[in-house]
Amino acid sequence: MNAPQEFDRHKETYRSDIDRAVAFSGQSHDFFTRVKAEYLIGLLGAVEKEAPSLAAIPLRVLDVGCGHGHIHPYLIQSALRMKLSAVDVAATVVEEARLMNPTVDYQSYAGERLPYDDNSFDAAYTIAVMHHVPPPQWPAFLNEMRRVVRPGGSIAIFEHNPINPLTQWIVRTCPIDENAVLLGRGRLSKLVAQAKFAAIESRFILFTPLDGAGYRAFDRMIGWLPLGAQYYVSARVPHTG
Ligand SMILES: C[S@@+](CC[C@H](N)C(=O)[O-])C[C@H]1O[C@@H](n2cnc3c(N)ncnc32)[C@H](O)[C@@H]1O
Predict the structure, then answer these.
(1) What was the pLDDT predicted at 1?
(2) Cα 92 to the chain's mean position, in Å?
(3) DSSP label at 144?
(4) How is residue 12 annotated by DSSP?
(5) Residue 57 placed within a domain
């Protein structure tokens, strides 16, 4: 079954399936979404700060594999000024996201060429998507992100950490992950380098499901430790080449 059919099929139960799989942590899907939103807002804020010429216009941001757009309210309500676009292969899921977040520009596509011109965005991100993309297509997926982001712009890829035993448990028990192929931080960083991105950085996140400022600060302090439930790789589109 290919990815578009897969997620259209899970659209009714997507949130409850994930909530059930992460229930042992004592947190809901929304907690994990909110924490990732905090990291993403930090990364996007850095892009905004570096380009003073952008101050007067909103940051153009693309979410690749947006699903239901659960993270979008956090981004829209943040202090960042952004024009958010989002794309997914699951057309019926995108329709639902559009109803929930009418200010976001949603599109669906076939999973190969992103439906945007070159250099259309200042930043693009993708969350929990690459493990649903067949591995032979990973390089093309990254090349498409690079094509649509302007030189100097930024990308971020959030993924499950296959080393973490609780992550393994969640992926094994969550119906939406039945065809998932997890990729570790090292492998993804190498793919990002092969796709000719620059300034590649990474950080492990979500070491604890405990909420509160102290726990979140702890999370940030130990981002080098490869035990977080998830991680992200961020990079820049180089100005030349
Ligand atoms: C686990 S969901 C994550 C959704 C959302 N990013 C989130 O964090 O809530 C994975 C999503 O990736 C989408 N997807 C799978 N293959 C894709 C591709 N090649 N391009 C874009 N989206 C894809 C699926 O349709 C699904 O909505």
Answers:
(1) 42
(2) 20
(3) H
(4) T
(5) yes
Q: Rounded CA gap, 12 and 30, in Å?
A: 16
Classify residue 241: in a domain, yes or no.
Answer: no
Query: Residue 97 domain-assigned?
Result: yes
Question: How many Cα atoms sit within 13 Å of 28 on the Cβ side?
Answer: 6
Closest atom of ligand 1 to 7 CA is 25
- Domain contains 134: yes
How many C-beta atoms lie closer than 10 Å to residue 6's C-beta?
15
Q: Give the pLDDT band (50/70/90) at residue 220.
A: very high
Nearest CA to ligand 1 atom 1: 128
66 within ligand 1 shell (Cβ under 6 A): yes
Kindly state if the Cβ of 162 falls inside 6 Å of ligand 1. no
Q: What is the pLDDT of residues 94-138, one digit of tens each?
A: 999 999 999 999 999 999 999 999 999 999 999 999 999 999 999
